[in-house]
Amino acid sequence: MKKVCIYGAGAIGGWLGVRLAQAGCEVSAVARGATLEALQKNGLQLTTNTPAQTDQVDVRASASPAELGVQDLVIVAVKAPAMAEVARAIGPLLGPDTIVLTAMNGVPWWFLEGFGGEHAGKRLSSVDADGSIGVNVPVKHIIGCVVHASCSLDGPGRVRQHFGNKLIIGEPSGEKTPRVRELAALLERAGLEAVLSDQIQKDTWFKLWGNMTMNPISAITGATTDRVLEDDLVRAFIGKVMLEAKEIGARVGIVIDQEPEDRHQVTLKLGAFKTSMLQDVEAGKPVELDALVTVVRELGQITGVPTPSTDALLGLARLHARVHGLY
Question: I need a surface site. Which of 27, 67, 105, 124 has the fewest CB within 10 A?
Answer without folding.
Answer: 67
